[in-house]
Queue: 4 jobs
Job 1
Amino acid sequence: MQVPQDRDDDWSKLLKLVGGKRDRAAFERLFNHFAPLIKGFHHSRNSQAFSADAADELVQEVMFRVWRKAPAFDAGKASASTWIYTIMRNCRIDMLRRGSRHRDAASDIEVEDIWDESPEGQPLVFLQKSRDERDIAEGLRNLPAEQSHVLKKAYMEGKSHSEISDELGLPLGTVKSRVRLALKKLQTSLIRSGAE
Amino acid sequence: MIRHHPDQNMLLEYAAGNLPWAVSLSVSAHLQLCPQCRRHCENLNHLGGNLLDDSEPQPTADDALQRLLDRIEVAERQSAEEPRTATDTRADKRGSNDPALANLPRVIDKLVRNNWPLKWQRVSPALKMSRLKSGQDRYEVAFHRIGRGGKTAEHDHRGQEVVLVLHGRFSDADGVYGPGDFLVREPGEVHRPIATQDQECLCFSVVEAPVAVTGLLGWLVNPFLSFRPG
């Protein structure tokens, strides 16, 4: 029988130290590596989704949550980068909703109720997943520019398909098919057989 | 078995955090019922993680790390001093005798708890609806409940409608749908859901704009009602 295999990359190891031992030195190394990437994801030549100040604020909030949530990090489920990505995405949704009049106290549904990454009730094959992650990294570098471009607009600039279609002056159907082609190239197992 | 799922594009918008709040609620509830889509979403999160790894690093503010360490220091001290408060102070006041509301996906269950007691509005002999506050107002979020064998009116939508079946089954001209099935109707697609005979059907629905009723009497009907008596 195969057992779930922990991620053995350095960042995942450091994150486990932060979670298990509340190791501040390990946290500082994580910060020095990930904070500039988080900022670059939202604000750089390639991505102007946030102003430099807003991106700095986001870095503070994301890394604060990384510290707080580190004890729940499961290296068998995702790498440090993927785990931090999900925290960052949820932070961004929170920031964009903050101050919005729709955030009525009566509803009380939190970002993490909807984007819920907790492991309850998820029978998954971990070994398979670690391979997926490497395949995605490899595939991402080999995508045609027009396909990686729409993925970056969706993830890094936070744009919906219809916003991308408006911005690039492309029909919505073209944006959708570029996304699907990109996913197909990234990994065939990303495509659910029989879906669509 | 779940046969109808959100498509690739919708899952990607969800994983990237760009899908409207109300639609994300439906996708999230579907994910809690569908290991296949859950796995797919995890891959989409890995894609996000890889894009983070490949980002062009930008120097953060000089005092960024110190500010954060100070904040952590303060937070740790506070949490050591204060007794832990309960995370959910709202008591669960529901009766537990409604089979349609048992075993809901976690996020829908929380929505029910926060909107309790549900106010059911009779739309037609076969159909009841209960609107839900969900923290947004771009979509109408509601439960629809069709009685055993109940027929609803044929209706069209001015905006996108997303339906997640939670309990029982219903059919329309295109097929039969059961728990976990996730359906997207685009504006202009007319359909007429009918519940199966064996049990009532509960659906979670999210509609972008008020639904238009088609047919001869359509103009008489309150446009804010989703269905006319059928």
Job 2
Amino acid sequence: MAKSKTIVSEFTKGFWEILPPFRLVLGLCPILAVTKAAENGIGMGIATTFVLFFSNIIISSIKTLIPKKVRIASYILIIATFVVIVELLMQAYFYSIYEKLGIFIPLIVVNCIILGRAEAFASKNPVFLSAADGLGIGLGFTLSLFLISSIREILGAGTIFGKYIMWDSYEPLAFMIEAPGAFICLGFLLAIMNLIPKK
Amino acid sequence: MEIIVLAINAILVKNILLAQYLGNCPFMGVSKKMETAMGMGISVMFVMTFATSFTWLFHHFFLIPMHIEYLQTIVFILVIAALVQLLEMVMKKVMAPLYNSLGIFLPLITTNCAILGVAVLVVRKELSFMDSVFFALFSAVGFTLAIVLFAGIRERFEISFIPKAFQDTAIALVTAGIMALAFFGFIGIDSALKI
């Protein structure tokens, strides 16, 4: 990148330039699995943002202490710690969403977006930039999850956040809230994003 | 008989890739060629069976007696990472030809969410040890089946016309969706077998 890195540019790039999962095809499992309803999508997005933000800060601040050979293992350990914190917080305060997301909360550990940002960004950049990067990518991810899950919920059940919004004679496309709908919906969104130039 | 039902359920009806949404990164990433897909599938079979048995034992003989079940995620990922390293070393020494063909997939598998997913799933479902091992093995067989079939379809993309916007991942996702729809057809055969 030719232009200088500022906190603002690092924060905003997550919303367009490298918006996951469209520009950065990583972390597909949560995107496909938890986007049955808009509520779940947002819950997952916020949990991931939390982990991404804090793990980026910690990894960036101790990057000089970690030996190169064991860096991936150390990153995974740091990420896993924050995932456990999220798990416990959600159990305590948002139990209904925790139940719905099920095993996909512990699986945030192996979400490639988080490890990818740790390796590609936080391990090379100062703390504040890494924090901005983590927050930006996390919120971009939340936005994408919200987009996919609302499309699937509206087409598949005719509702958004549990409220019915379609006309009365609307026949819900039940397959949209099942696995095939997830794949096809993401495939079409990706194709639409490919039509729009990056700049 | 019960084992057959378990197998059909894990391989076809609740296919780990196409119905449970686990392990989709390698599904998209290494499915461009039949050979690599096969290699990935066999490595997953190895690691998933071993990892699930070890994490099950860790959970029941270490986490539960110590009352630290909340550390499950950290312990499981550590066990899996250590196991993959160990398996890599053992394979290098004992089965060199196998290592040469599968070696590159092993480090990738640590972050394959299907492995951790199945390990967490069997503990949450409270399956017995033998059931867990078989469940892991059959899930991995299902993974291999789906990824090999998918690679077979993807190899044909090279000679077919695909609109520019759909090239690469987009068309792959739509194809996976249609495959998942086809796998829907298996719903119900497990209950038919039980009777």
Job 3
Amino acid sequence: MSDTPVGARPRGASLRAIFASASGVLGALGRNRVGWAAPLVAVLLVVAILVAVLALVPAIAPFVYPLL
Amino acid sequence: MDILGLSSGELGSGASLVRDGALHACAREERFTRQRLDPNPPRFAAEHCLRQAGHPAAGLSGIAVAGDPADRFTRVLTGTLGQGFPLMVPAFVRSMSAWIGHHLWERDSLSRLLDVDPAAIQYRARHRCLSAAAVQGSGVDEAAILVVDTIGEWTTTTIARWKEGGAPEDVERFEYPHSLGLLSAAVAMLLGLRPWEGLAPLWDLAAWGRPTLTSRFRRVLQVHEDGTYQITPGFLRFAELFEPPYGDPWTGAFTDLFGAPRDARRPWPFRAGEAPAVVDTEDQRHADIAASLQVVIEEAMLGLARRAKAKTGAAHLCVAGALAGNASAILRLRREAGFASVHVPADPTGLSAGAALLLAAERGAPLSGRAPQPFGGRAWPAGRDLAAVARMDPMWWQRFRRRGTAPVRDARIEVTPELDDDTLLAQVVADLAAGRIVGWLEGAFESGPGGLAHRVLLADPRDLAVARRLTERVTGAAAFAPTTLLTRPEAVAALVDEPAPTAGWVPLAAHASAAARAAALTAVHADGTLRYLPVDAAVAPRMAALLDRWSASTGAPGLLLADLREAEDPLAASPADALLIFMRTEVDTLVLDQGLVRKELP
């Protein structure tokens, strides 16, 4: 019976968590035999990052928020 | 060894703490944020669990989260794409916006919330969590488990086996899109109900209809001789139910069979406890749809239970998931599936508790079927709130009064901050006998979805007018839904034909005896069944004492039970929540631990 404490959040944890989530998705796509969807997920991620960046620009943000 | 279990999502988020294999604390986020089925990460519920643990999250032995987001994402992605272009576009945009936007990054947000190492957060499959939660309170040491749900990652139905001390082992899984829960949710939407708040209204409505459309449902849901089942392609588009706001989950072929969807604003003509009045053919047809679905769902669940019996050879069955709340189906399993007992846990969709129990079992803490603590929520002292009410002018409350209820501005409010149990119970019994509605708040709130004995509304079950006032002026529940009779285990034998052998703090159903029909008029449903909840004196001694005193004084077998809440709100958690309900609605008497508040309208 393991009773080791889980420990506090270390520095740089966000980046590692995001990579862990992304690799988890790739693993799940393979596990569920839908690996063909990986490029689509990559495109969706790029679009999401673009939209998130555009939402930071005050002049463009009002046009981006309705898309979210 | 302390394990924290977490769940979030469309069914509402929650947190549980398991200490050495036993449930120590359990709460839903909605009780703290007052947002019904709050889907956000369970910040306050986790805080409550950590307060009970007595140390910060970093000191936990493990953190388990129900539902693997990566697997769910693949199902959402392929499920929406599978609908075909251009039909899939709205559901795809809606789902991907939510998933790419936040669901996928849940590990990081939970790590920030709890201030723990993200690597310590472990995901467990949703159905494995439900399997672990299913055995809680069963009182047996070996059982077959049947999880019949809407959908987990891919799994919709699971048959598992479990032995005391170990974690449940999956025996067979049925996967998306073959889901009894999603089919039920789609039919509920067709009938103008709100399935995301639970499927109970659909099952309650079924009692008012006739199963005239079962052959049509058998075209949509094929139940095979060997207990397996299959959803026929071409009738339903379940991907519309993946992310709110939900689209229509049916195709033209489905509406050709069952007609156009019902207007959700149209009132139902059925009233619990009363003989059906003249019913419009459209209303009757909609009730017939619910009744027909009920028949095929019962057949499917019975087939699955028999298959579970054949595959595991177990003597007892534990059922969990969204369809475990179908009391009539559970009654049928109890009678016909061939098990010595059929158990439903106090919270059949308790994902956070299941996640924590499962991780604890995997780490060597024995998973046991011993009685769970159904009141794992937080307790608040009521003294300060009572003192505030005592000083407050009723005129101040008038602005909060719910539309359609009697004005409170000239009411006389009597506040007694501290009463001994004897005096308090005598006053409550007298008030109930006089046709008053009593709100009851005691100790910690319930872990599960509804009020059991600590956050409840009580009334005289023999008085139809009080039952109607309770529904229309307090809870706002559907008029066709039956109420539950809160009773003592000793009284059950005289009330129903076949009492259930176990009582796990979940409302049970059985055919009402003649005595019950005479004595508990309003708790007997249109199909002749009685919904009842036996109160265990060892867990809820004050409520048991109240019931004993009530029965001795009036001869009635129990009290009418409803959740202490208004229709759109979560169950009351703190004394302030209960006081707001008391002043907004037609609750006449409110018990807050040892305190008593009474309202006298002019």
Job 4
Amino acid sequence: MKKITTKDLIAGGFFVLLGIIILIYSQQIVLKPNLTEPGGRLFPQITGIGMIICGIGAAFYSRFTFKPTEDQELFLNKQEFLKLLLFFGILIVYYIAMRYVGYLISTPIACFALIQVLKGKKKASIIVSAIISLAITAILYYAFYYGFYIYLPTGILFA
Amino acid sequence: MSHFLPALGALLEPKIFVLILICSFAGIVFGAIPGLSGGMGVSLLLPLTFGMDTITGFAMMLSMWVGGVSGGFISATLIGIPGAPSSIATCYDAYPMSQRGETSRALSIGIFGSFFGTAVSIIIAAIVCPYVAKLAISLGPWEYFSLCLCALMLVSSLSRGNIFKALLSALLGMFFAMIGTSVMDGVFRFTFGTTYLKAGVDMVPMMLGTFAVAQIAMDYAKGRQELPQSNAKIKGVGLNLKDFTQNIVVIIKSFLIGLWIGFLPGMGSGISNMIAYGQAKSGHKEADQFGKGHPGGIWASEVSNNASVGGALIPMITLGIPGDGTTALLMTALMVHGLQPGPMFITSQPKLVYVIFACVLLSAIVVVLMQTLGIRWFPAMLKIPYHYLFGVILIICIAGAFASQNNIITIFAAIVFGAIGILLNYFDLPNAPMILTFVLGSKIEEYFRKGISYTDKGIMPFITRPVSLLFLVLAVLSVLWPMVKPYIKKKQKAE
């Protein structure tokens, strides 16, 4: 028995909603007078309508194909989802820290934290992790500063 | 030839040559380690090249790419896991051959197959490109719009599974491309009142987020950061002339398949190796030996995936349409340096174009030498601890994202695109259509709007001009075919 999968419904629904938002927002795009072409509103409208049509198509595609419905593997279980949150949490904290205390302070800490998190159940020497974190921070800083003339953030607090 | 030798000379300058050596080696490592790829390596290099001159930047990215495509066979041979999607078919015969004690032979076929594919394909690209560019000059915005549309539809239709999801991915790329200032009239779209979005979405954090951050995050969440280790013993080269002569038909056939698939937009080495392997097996008198360590299987996969390198560069240089994800990154780099690939590119920037060809050829030579001399150290490459490598890569990603605009908000953008990459993964949406549409999005809109404004006939020239019509028909067919195919199959079964 072919059935519509929940994931397809969620994906389809998400894009139908996004398509509607794009369509509504595209009405606010200013059209300049005396244009000899469609103006900046046409493509957002095509995109919005396309998303609505394809969103519906994506949601019900499995109903009309002649492939047997495969058992859906769980995308992420609870533990994996928490790991993902932790991963992005570190990146967000790193971004905030970079904004306030700058690259030189935030990067070795973030690199050390990422190595410790990514090691999983394996052992990773704290000293080696610390050396690598400090080394990569210094190498990138000097490469950007002297090699590419790009000044990495100094942070609001130290600006 | 008049441009080729000066281009080669420019690349042999000590500073650039050393960078080619380093990046070729890094590319081999990126290609060899499952989870990393040459494409990811190129995306990491992209922001670093902003402060460099175009030739140096391109030399780095191209050598990383060539090393990455080539290096995928190493882990495929040693541990049976492809280092990159371009080497999936290599596993079928290289690993069994390695398991029966012929590791050196399997690796050597991979090394020379990769070299043959890359070197010959880039020579052909260098010969063909000027002719394709001449043809392309006669095309107007109508044909270019239809060609871009056809390319995007082809990419979407060739993605596995639900065609609507591939189209949604392309539309999402279009949406991101529209954020910022409109191409022809300069009005602001989807900026939501913030000044950060007025310049549009930057390509670099998008690429880093979807290529690197999302991949590492998913591998970590799924606990895929551990690699099986290889105990293979490698002695000598292990390859003889017979291995080459007995498989010459397979090599030539696979090469042509790889070159053609590389040329088609969106179809790169990830697909060519599978198709070439299937073709090699189906027409071979020893077909039953394929999958059990037959050298023809390794030649087919490795020659075809590397032949796609030259093939993918032809549409990028002559038409301004990237052949695959990595050429989309290279095209981004050109645009960042103020250059626009397309039919005029070869006449306006002949030196750079031939630097690209010469660099790929030089990198292929460097890679084959490195791999031949370093064959016995291949197992050591897979022993680099994942957590150190990926931790460092993430930090480079963040620094690279910042460097793209010298603005801290781009770091946040890279993280957000990492999350979007995971969302696409959850919805089973392929990311290739999104990336290609994002790169081509503003061009598609510009060609369409120019096409309308150049005449007073509205959209009619898109249909009445034969080349434009041909591309439009191909675009429609490529979308309809995956929808109609199941019905035809069902009907055939019923009969």
